[in-house]
Design goal:
Layout: E1 2-9, H1 13-24, E2 29-32, E3 48-51, H2 62-79, E4 84-93, H3 98-108, H4 118-124, E5 135-146, H5 147-155, E6 162-163, E7 168-172, E8 175-179, E9 184-192, H6 198-201, E10 209-219, E11 234-239, E12 242-246, E13 255-259, H7 281-290, E14 298-309, E15 323-327, E16 330-337, H8 347-359
Parallel strand pairs: 1-2, 1-9, 2-6, 4-11, 9-16
Antiparallel strand pairs: 3-5, 4-5, 7-8, 8-9, 10-13, 10-14, 11-12, 12-13, 15-16
Helix pairs in contact: 1-5, 1-8, 2-8
Length: 382
Amino acid sequence: MRVCEVAVVGLGLIGSSAFHSLLRRGTDVLGFDPLVLGEARGSSHGSCRVYRRFNFESAAYTELSDAAFKGWRMLEAASGRTILMPTRVLEAGPPGSKMVADSRAAALKDAVPGPATGAEANAAFPAFRLPEHWDVVVQESGGILLAEAAIRAFREGAEHRIILAPARIRPVAAGIRISMPQEVILAERAIIAAGPWIAGLVPGLARHLKITRQTVGWFKPAKPELVRYGEFPAFIVEGEKGVVYGFPDFEGRGVKAAQHDHGPVVGADAWHPQPTDAELETVGLTLAELVPGAAGPIVERDICLYTNTLRADLRPDEGNEFIIDRLPADPRIIVASPCSGHGAKFASAIGTMLADLALDAKLIAPKAFQLDRFSGVEPPSS
């Protein structure tokens, strides 16, 4: 039977980052994932994600954002790849918008200047047509995270340590048994970072998670000269029909945009059919109303899955908080679900955190991310 020190189950952005961090330390690590990089399933495929230094979800994330920024720059230096493209990030909403207020409160700690009203934003970025009295905050230190480029860089040179097969996990006295259709491997410890499939690997976790189908579109912009990278920011706007985010046209594919609000609940393997224009109607209407320079016909479509944490039942929180912790019943297994639609930007830092937990038995996960806030979470049994 083949053995290793650490098995990483799930090699999206988070798992690949942990895999890379362990490799850098000389750990005997193996990675497992049934999906080929770029396959349009799960949560990490596709070209880009928004990087925000200041996060409306919580001001406490700024430190994690800064650590992630350093991690992305280190990965770029080591790989010679572009991973994080700098861009401004504009957030806008009606007067009193909690989203804008929370981001602004975090940003003002660093005295970040920029447009503060819809009128000022429209003047600075003519692709927008925001109500003039709206609240706005613009982050100068944002970025476009090139997701698949990052995963390639994390895995580069270690492809022989990656096994493309579905894996089941079972703790035994000698270690963590990793079972695949053609092979069984024994690991001393395991990191489970399986995205929407994590609920099937960790009993009791399913009732604390909600997997949603998020439809993404690329729109042919009405005014392409106004939405070019370098001149037009990434954006998050809180319209009447929900929160919509988007990117400048940095690839020549059009403006990528989607709803951030949770879509329909699905299973990890039951999210078909393929995306339709009807699912993007709200996005198109929001662009036409608030970002008309970016609005236009849909030219591409995709699906992304969010794995959302519900409000905890033992130590109440606001929901959508990350899970990064050892299983209380078996600390040899580390569970990572730093998702809820806002975790990708942190992947370089979270991978380091997971590697630290795997290699240092005395290390304790951050309190906000611990599993003891949920009831009934047990180690895998099959």
